[in-house]
Amino acid sequence: MTSLATPTQPAGTGLWTFYGSVTISAPAKDIWDALVDFQSYSKWNFYTPTIDTPNPPEVPQPGHIIHLHYRPESTGSTMKVPCEILEVESSKYRIVWRGKAFNLPLWVLSPEKVQTITELVDGKCKFEIWETQSGLLAFYTKYGMGKKLSQMNQGIAEGLKGYVEGKRRGE
User: Fold this and answer.
1) Rounded distance between C-alpha atoms, residue 23 and residue 87, angstroms
2) Angle of helix 137-168 relative to helix 28-36, nearest 10 degrees?
3) Is the peptide bond before 57 cis (omega within 30 degrees of 0)?
4) SS3 (DSSP) at 128
5) pLDDT score of 1
6) What are the pLDDT digits (tens) for 108-152?
7) Which of 14, 69, 71, 148 could form a disulfide with 132 if both were Cys (CB 3.0 to 4.6 A apart)?
């Protein structure tokens, strides 16, 4: 797979992309509201159960630094990773952040995560999540953790689906 585009990495310029997607039976606004409600992540996102933001419960804006409490598997200890918000576009249902682990220069590791919601027919939407990585350490993550990271993004997508559809059913 050619690497997918992010705000600062055109398609094909990153080393690799890990991807997840799911169809959710809910309006885009309901999915968006859950996606940007970082305080609800512990209810559905087993890989990033906590996100610290500058002014909760407000949605962070471009330039803000958030801290993900992240793990590459659905259980176990988390590590705190700072990320810079690059885009928050509620009209396009798109949020993007760039990892800044250990304050490494971008030529060492530049991971950018994109999450989008696309309206389909019959009250359904497609949720997509991908992270494109470039830099020297991207080789390590691709070959050392690639399968886990791909499973993680798919797990995040499925967790969001279960949470949003469950709320609509009154669960």
Assistant:
1) 23
2) 120
3) yes
4) strand
5) 64
6) 999 999 999 999 999 999 999 999 999 999 999 999 998 899 999
7) 14
